[in-house]
Amino acid sequence: MERPGAAAGGDVCMCQTVFPAHANHRGELSAGQLLKWMDATACLAAEKHAGVSCVTASMDDIQFEEAARIGQIITIKAKVNRAFKTSMEVGIKVTVQDVLTNIEKIVSVAYATYVAKPVGAGKFELEPVKLLSREDHLEHTLAIERRRIRLGYEQVFQNLMQESNKEGEYCNFSEEEDAVSTDLTHVQSIELVQPPHANHHGNTFGGQIMAWMETVASISASRLCRSYPVLKSVNMFKFWGPSVVGDRLVFNAIVNNTFQNSVEVGVRVEAYNCEEWIKDQARHINSAFLIFNTVNDKGELLTFPRIKPTTKDDMRRYHGAVARRRIRLARKCMLSAKEDKPSDSWEKSNQAYVSYSNIAALAHLAAKPGWEITSTLDDIKIWTHEEGDVLSFKVEMQVKIPSYLAFSLLSDFTFRQRWDKHFLTCKVLQAVNEDEKIYHVTSPPMTGHKPRDFVILVSQRQPCKPSEPYIVAVKSVTLTSMPPSPEYCRSEILCAGFQVYSVSPNSCMVCYFNQVTSGVMPYLAANLTGSSKSIEDTALECIKFLELECSKY
After folding, report:
1. What are the residue boundaries of the START domain, all occurrences included (predicted)?
2. How many whole angstroms separate alpha carbon 212 and alpha carbon 23?
3. Considering the domain boundaries, does residue 490 fall inside one?
4. Which range among 366-370, 388-392, 423-427, 485-489 shows the weakest confidence by mean pLDDT?
5. How far apart are CA 99 and CA 174, in angstroms?
6. Residue 115 phi, psi dihedral angles, 5° rounding
7. Both 414 and 528 in a single domain?
C-alpha cells in the first residue's frame, strides 16, 4: 500500500487559553485536560507524517514542572522524532505563558509512541523523517535509546521485584496505629464511550482515557490525604488494546503506597461491549500509575499517612510502587544531569538510564555548534570547543579500514593499550550485555603524582541505516564492588567516545571526542591537554593500529 502524500517531520503547534471550564477548584489547568490536549496534538503530528489515521500506543513517564492558571496561554508543540516500521516517536513540549508578564515556563516535556492504522489490510511502512536541523538529528539519534528503555522497562521492574522478595522487605504494618487500609482508597468509575470521545474510526481517544484515569486516581488519593491532590507525574501509559464507541469502560483505582510527601495510585481500565458486559468478560486495555502530592494554603507540602496492605495482592502493589519509585528517581537523576555532575552509580534501577545518558552526552557533544579547527595533518584534523569552563576536543581521523571493523576494534578497550601510551592496564569488571561493558583502567604515574585509575562504562551502538555512525560512548560510573584504592588517584571521565562513519567499503572516518571541565582531569583526556603534536602522535598510533589489524583479516 502506498502512503498518501504528507509533509515529513510532522511538526504541529497548538495554543489554548485556559478558561474556567478547563480548571480545577484552585483555578489551575486540570491535569486531565492537559493530557487530552497533549495526546490530541501529538496524534495530529503523527498523522501529518504518516498520512493515515494513528492511535496512541504509549506515553512515556510524564513530569509536570509548572501549573497553568486561568487566563494563561498553553502552547503544545509536537513533532515526530523518528519513524520505525509502523510506529513513531513523537516529542511533546508544553509551555505556559502569562499574558501580563510575558514570562514563559516549561510545563512538561514528554515522548509518546503512535502506531499508524491505515484503512484496509494492505502492507504499510512509514517513511523516514526528514532531518532539517541539528536538533532533528540529535532527537532522531536519541529516539533509538529511548526505545531501548521502553522495551527493557518491564525486565528492570521484574528484577527489582525479585530483589525485593529475596531481601524480604516486609514491614509489620499491624504495629503502625496511624496506617490506613488500602481498601478505603479503592474507587470505581464507569464511563460510556460516546462519539465525542472517539476519532472518525470510532476508536476512543487515548487522551480521553488518560483524563478519566486522572479523575478516578485523584479521588482515590483524596480519600487518603483528606485534601485536594495535585498530579505531579505519571508512570508510562501503555495501551494494551482499543476501545470503541459504545464500550463501557470500568476504571478501578487504589493507593499502592505513600512516600511521605507523595502517593502512588494504580489505575486499571477494562472495556466491555454489550455482549461482554452481560457475560462479565472484560478486556484489559490500559494500566497506569499516577503520583500525587498535596499542599496547604501556604503552598507547603503535606505528609501522607502510611498505608496498610491487607492482602497478598496489596503487598505486591506496595512493593511494586517502591520499585517504580527507584526507577523514577534514577530516571530523574540521569535525564536532568548537569554536564559537570560526578560519575553515576551503576545499580539495577538505573542501568538503562545511565546507558542512555552515556549515549546522549556523546550525541549532544558531537552536535554542538561552534567547533574550531586548530590543527590539520594529512589524515588528521583537531578541533576544539569552549563553553564556560568546559573545554572539548574532537580528533578526526581518515582510516583505510571498513567502518564495522574499526568499530569492533575501538569498542574493545582491552586493545587500547596497544596504541595509547596512557593506558597501563585495562580489565573488564562487568559484561552487562553485548552492548555495555564496565572497565577498570589504570594510567602511569605523572611526575609528583600517584597513578590514576578509572571505572568506566563503555556503551556501543551499531547504526540503524548506512548514513548513521557507529557509536562508542564512555563515561565514569561508580561500582560498590570497586571502591577507590589508596594506591591510585580515582579520576572521572565526563564524556568521551568515538563516532565511526563509513566513507567507502574499505575506508572510514573516526571521530574521537573528549570533554574536560576545570575541576575534572580525566585520564582519557591526558593526551589531549598537551600540545597538538601529542594529540597527532596518539591519533597516528591509533590509525596505525587499526590498519595493521585490518591487514590480518
Report:
1. 368-553
2. 15
3. yes
4. 388-392
5. 53
6. -115, 135
7. yes
